[in-house]
Amino acid sequence: MAEQAGAVAVEPPVETARRRRQRDDARPKRQPRYNVILWNDDDHTYAYVIAMLMELFGYPPEKGFQMAKEVDTTGRVIVLTTTKEHAELKRDQVHAYGTDALVDGCQGSMWATIEPVPGDE
């Protein structure tokens, strides 16, 4: 295509590094995710674990059973992945859930911890 006489070629604007940073800074940042880990012990029954997971996490009985079986066979299970504040709340709720009435001499609640999702920091 031939340019018309007197026409000025207009180049597209160049995005500067500063503008790119401003644009990136304006984007919402995703919070790092944390896993809530439930740890196995010999003081709690499957029924206790299933009931706790249903009540605290809203899982159906089938999902609760799968998680109870995993914590029993592997020693731990990730019960939730969420923000740090929510993970801390859920961990604290597990710790406050109470003893297993089906186990004589049960010393208290199950143990849970939180840890960052690997590669998500």
Question: What brief labels describe this structure?
Answer:
single chain; 121 residues; alpha+beta; three-stranded antiparallel beta sheet; 3 strands; 17% strand
Outline the structure in words:
Strands 2-1-3 form a 3-stranded antiparallel β-sheet. The protein has helices at 17-26, 46-57, 61-74, 84-95, and strands at 33-39, 76-83, 111-116. Helix 2 packs across helix 3. The chain has a single domain (32-116), classed as Ribosomal protein L7/L12, C-terminal domain/Adaptor protein ClpS (Ribosomal Protein L30, Chain: A, 2-Layer Sandwich), CATH 3.30.1390. The chain is of the alpha+beta class and 121 residues long. The longest helix has 14 residues, at 61-74.
